[in-house]
């Protein structure tokens, strides 16, 4: 869906300048901004759009994002711990070295995004879709995932140790590389093909030696 089709597109107002702590942003459009070292902890973003925005080394802990649209954005080495995301879309964006631990993500879609070295430990994800994404070195350790799916996405060096899963569908993933934490997959659905690919990893995790002859 293009930006112009958002239900609140006609209300968006251009925003320039730095982000501020505990500020409330309503129907603001952040476009082509370089927000290095942004300090916006506790801020609220309601029906806002971010296009071509780069946030590096930012501090947005405990910020709230409700019905937001992010397109072509770069979030690098940024603290998003304990944030809340609800009814949003993130498309064509990069998240690298981002801390999202303890965050709550509800009804969020990430489409054609790249996530690298993202910490989602102890986060709560409900009705989240990773569509055609690349996840590399992403840590879901101790997180709670409910009704989460990964259609067309590649998972490389992704960890689910001590995670709690319910109705998590991994069948659409094009790659499933899980180096450890296999016990955290309880509650997930995988395909027969994926099971055969993961069998050696499951055997190692159980201390089972497989030998022929």
Textual characterization of the structure:
The protein has 213 residues and is mainly β. The chain is built from one helix and 22 strands. Strands 1, 2, 3, 5, 6, 8, 9, 11, 13, 15, 17 and 19 form a twelve-stranded parallel beta sheet that branches. Strands 4-7-10-12-14-16-18-21 form an eight-stranded parallel beta sheet. The longest helix has 15 residues. The chain starts with 12 loop residues before the first strand and ends in a 7-residue tail after the last helix. The model has no long low-confidence stretch (mean pLDDT 94).
Features:
single chain, 8-stranded parallel beta sheet, elongated, 213 residues, 1 helix, 12-stranded parallel beta sheet, 22 strands, mainly beta
Task: Give a short overview.
With 213 residues, the protein is mainly beta.
Topology:
Layout: E1 13-15, E2 24-26, E3 28-31, E4 34-36, E5 44-46, E6 49-51, E7 54-56, E8 64-66, E9 69-71, E10 74-76, E11 84-91, E12 94-96, E13 104-111, E14 114-116, E15 124-131, E16 134-136, E17 144-146, E18 154-156, E19 164-166, E20 168-169, E21 175-176, E22 188-189, H1 192-206
Parallel strand pairs: 1-3, 2-5, 3-6, 4-7, 5-8, 6-9, 7-10, 8-11, 9-11, 10-12, 11-13, 12-14, 13-15, 14-16, 15-17, 16-18, 17-19, 18-21, 20-22
């Amino acid at each position: 869906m293009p930006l112009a089709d958002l239900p609140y597109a006609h209300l968006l107002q251009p925003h320039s300048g730095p982000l501020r702590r505990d500020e409330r942003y309503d129907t603001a459009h952040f476009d082509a901004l370089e927000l290095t070292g942004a300090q916006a902890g506790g801020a609220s973003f309601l029906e806002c759009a971010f296009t071509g925005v780069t946030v590096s080394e930012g501090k947005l802990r405990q910020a709230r994002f409700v019905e937001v649209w992010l397109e072509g954005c770069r979030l690098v080495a940024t603290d998003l711990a304990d944030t809340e995301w609800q009814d949003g879309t993130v498309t064509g964006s990069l998240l690298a070295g981002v801390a999202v631990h303890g965050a709550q993500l509800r009804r969020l879609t990430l489409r054609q995004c790249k996530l690298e070295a993202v910490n989602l430990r102890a986060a709560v994800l409900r009705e989240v879709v990773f569509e055609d994404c690349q996840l590399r070195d992403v840590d879901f350790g101790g997180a709670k995932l409910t009704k989460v799916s990964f259609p067309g996405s590649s998972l490389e060096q992704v960890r689910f140790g001590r995670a709690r899963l319910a109705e998590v569908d991994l069948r659409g993933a094009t790659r499933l590389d899980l180096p450890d934490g296999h016990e955290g997959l309880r509650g997930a659905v995988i395909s027969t093909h994926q099971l055969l690919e993961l069998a050696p990893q499951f055997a190692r995790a159980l201390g089972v030696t497989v030998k022929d002859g």
